[in-house]
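debug: dumping io for the single-chain case to check the tokenizer round-trip. Nothing else runs in this session.
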Amino acid sequence: MCIRDSSKSKKTIYTSFEVFRVTKKDVPVEVLEFKDQVHGFAWEPMGHRFGVLHGEPPRVDVSFYTMGDEEQLKPGQALQVDKLETLSKKGVNEIRWSPKGRNVLLAGLRNLNGYFEWWNVDEMQMVAQDEHFMATDIDWDPTGRFVVTSVGAWRHSHENGYVVWSVLGKKIHTVQKQQFWQFMWRPRPICLLSNEEEESISTDWKKWKATFEAEDLKAKESASDEERQVRIELMAEWESRVANWKAARKRQKEIRGELRGYTTEEEEESVDVTEHDFTVLDVKEELLDA
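debug: decoded output
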């Protein structure tokens, strides 16, 4: 849990965060202080990190912190809040985590005209950057694989619509729609797998990968055999049509020969072709009265 406390001294605004570990004994608390203005805070879903937007707008700093990962702790070492990285001078005013964590979208909405950066926080690497002019809203899908940016009519009367992006920042689909107000993903159904089965997908993924690759290869080979059979049948049909056309052509040629008394080849051999060359000796122009 986190509590934000802001205070002002003359023209300077100070912000502090009190971070509580509510699942630990005696609920230990840590204080995180910022000597500049804070514009946004967002927890990582299904993770132990959070991001903070702070600094002087329109270009602010984005700092990422971790509460500590118990699985990576050494014996006797206590959990504590540590800074992971600070991204300096970013033209953004929103930080939106993927519902599955790890990936985050830094956005410059509304007055910042829709500038976006996709970041992989595990690698602390920017994956992509792009723009959606005048964007006002961001909506991640429940799986964390796609994200929608939109321009709502509640804010702008023009450029209304939405864009669907992949988690890697690739533009997939664009819709322009006047009087567009809001985009909402259909809620994802509750997973039918148990917690142990979900964990096995991650821990035993190599085994599952080999199983599914074998099934994919089998399906591909089956599809290849079916495709090959279709091609053979099409080629046989084509050859049959060509043979019928040649037979009809030959029969027509015989009928013409019977009616005319000679064949086309004999006609071409008996025809005399005379060529004449003409030379222009003089050209005279005359004007005619209308």
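debug: round-trip ok. The first helix runs from residue 195 to 203.
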